[in-house]
Amino acid sequence: MRFVIVTGMSGAGKSSALKMLEDIGYFCVDNLPVELLDKFAQITLDKTVKIQNVALGIDIRSGEGIKELEQKLQEIKDMGISFEILFLNASNRILLKRYKETRRNHPLSRDGRVEDGIAKEREEMKFLLKKATYVIDTSQLLIRELKEEIDRIYVDGEVNERFQIAVVSFGFKFGIPADVDLVFDVRFLPNPYYDLKLRPLTGNDKPIQDFVMKYEEAGEFLDKLYDMLEFLIPNYIKEGKYNLVIGVGCTGGKHRSVTIANALAKELKKMPYSVKVEHRDITR
């Protein structure tokens, strides 16, 4: 039996994750009072109940009860029940955006600002983040991508935690993406924009890729960047970071940055991490 505690930041996708677990056969209970956790765990030990896999949604909605959670987890561990903690996370900026879009109140900010509630919740949930078996950062995930992560962990049986990398190409003339962690400027490379035959194409087209990559500087830049990321990523993981957004920018975000972002993502996929590539300004 897999006994999963689904927790994390409000607005990060816990309800969606529970529904996905329910769809693959888990017995799911959302917002279980922390005080009842040990009693529920005892029920699962009863052979007549025939519960195979369990997922419990426990989060800041438990109020003061969340302070008892660490003790309750130790109690069910003492019963001989092995449990996993799935922590759904997202950046403060994304959480605030989601709350504004849904016009819902944050559980800890009914009489104040949502930003204050998010900050307070992050502090109170810090101990669970440290204990988490799996952490999924949904800041950049679509629903189908979240489902892929849930399936990877709970259907495919893969046990290794996966660091999430997003490589985003963009044009400096349209501004730097707000959520990038690392920004790399590839405007030092020759620009295919000035070739009228190449101008209508993008970095997804082979003629543009051939033009950009024929210069020695492009290959050397990618080699040095990959070496740096090989060093950085394990250290990010060691410090508790679970996702990385890499911005690759050129003037318009259509030719050089797209080519380099695609080439970088291809190399990063050789690492044991989840990698996706986005081209923010390719159609502008």
From TrEMBL:
<feature type="domain" description="RapZ C-terminal">
    <location>
        <begin position="164"/>
        <end position="282"/>
    </location>
</feature>
<dbReference type="InterPro" id="IPR005337">
    <property type="entry name" value="RapZ-like"/>
</dbReference>
<feature type="domain" description="RapZ-like N-terminal">
    <location>
        <begin position="1"/>
        <end position="154"/>
    </location>
</feature>
<feature type="binding site">
    <location>
        <begin position="8"/>
        <end position="15"/>
    </location>
    <ligand>
        <name>ATP</name>
    </ligand>
</feature>
<keyword id="KW-0067">ATP-binding</keyword>
<protein>
    <submittedName>
        <fullName>Nucleotide-binding protein</fullName>
    </submittedName>
</protein>
<dbReference type="InterPro" id="IPR027417">
    <property type="entry name" value="P-loop_NTPase"/>
</dbReference>
<dbReference type="GO" id="GO:0005524">
    <property type="term" value="F:ATP binding"/>
</dbReference>
<dbReference type="InterPro" id="IPR053930">
    <property type="entry name" value="RapZ-like_N"/>
</dbReference>
<dbReference type="InterPro" id="IPR053931">
    <property type="entry name" value="RapZ_C"/>
</dbReference>
<keyword id="KW-0342">GTP-binding</keyword>
<dbReference type="GO" id="GO:0005525">
    <property type="term" value="F:GTP binding"/>
</dbReference>
<keyword id="KW-0547">Nucleotide-binding</keyword>
<dbReference type="Pfam" id="PF22740">
    <property type="entry name" value="PapZ_C"/>
</dbReference>
<feature type="binding site">
    <location>
        <begin position="59"/>
        <end position="62"/>
    </location>
    <ligand>
        <name>GTP</name>
    </ligand>
</feature>
<dbReference type="Pfam" id="PF03668">
    <property type="entry name" value="RapZ-like_N"/>
</dbReference>
